[in-house]
Fold this protein.
Amino acid sequence: QAPTSADACLSIVHSLMCHRQGGESESFAKRAIESLVKKLKEKRDELDSLITAITTNGAHPSKCVTIQRTLDGRLQVAGRKGFPHVIYARIWRWPDLHKNELKHVKFCQFAFDLKQDSVCINPYHYERVVSPGIGKISLVDQ
């Protein structure tokens, strides 16, 4: 059974760690998830949305899960800087994701590209758009 926002940070982090896709090292993912859970602890409805989205693999529509936008838009985790929506999409959905491959879904109100004060990091509020030329299979060769 999935935890709720009322549970201890530790058990929420543990549950969310079980769903990672292996694109980041375990220690990096743990630091990133711990940092996120702490930021969301005061915003219980958003933390619950995150838990539901991740533990059901996006089976149900979920709300935006937001953190404060930093000045340069990047988040520092374990000495590394990266865009928050990309970091969490890599952890929970696409381990080999590149930063320019994400497009937000139309109902997301705080998507990174919308330049609001808050940024939605719900991985299920983004879709992967593969850049032209990357991973394309030529039909001619088949």
Q: What stands out?
A: The longest strand covers residues 66-68. The beta strands are 66-68, 75-77, 80-82, 102-104, 118-120, 126-128. Helices lie at 9-17, 26-40, 44-55, 84-92.
